[in-house]
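Give me structure tokens for this 166-residue protein.
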Amino acid sequence: MTSHDGGPDAAHHKPQDVSDATVEALGSLSKALETVERARGHLYGFHQLTGTADFELDQAVDLLRAAGHDDWADRVESEIVGRNVIPGHWTFQIVEAYDRTYYEPFRDLERGAVADLADGRPHLLEARLKEARRTAGHSDHTARPGASPTKGSSSGDGGPPRTGRP
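Here you go.
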């Protein structure tokens, strides 16, 4: 699919020897990795929120002592402050294990597949979807940064394309 304003940049043109099925498969693999990226972000959120709570306990201990509740302050300090979140692990160790065991191998595999199967060109599926969904001539629907909008359809049929999702 070629648009009137040159279409995607060279890094997002599908190489001729790459099939549409391969583009779909790599798109699915990349989508799965993007989901893992989000999961990893939640894991970092868990890590930071747990650490923030642990440091807030210092304030709770001080306030309990100031209110005359030394026994409760001692319990919070000895039973919860600095406690493992799962046996033998603080949250940073969970993050490290996730990265080492799952995230990094997944990321490396996805990069290897894109390098081997699509000449290292990422996001070919998304580039194809963008071309299908652009409105030709609209200033906010250009193919790439710096491209000028032109009249005519990016899909070549005279009307605005509306297939797929961004």
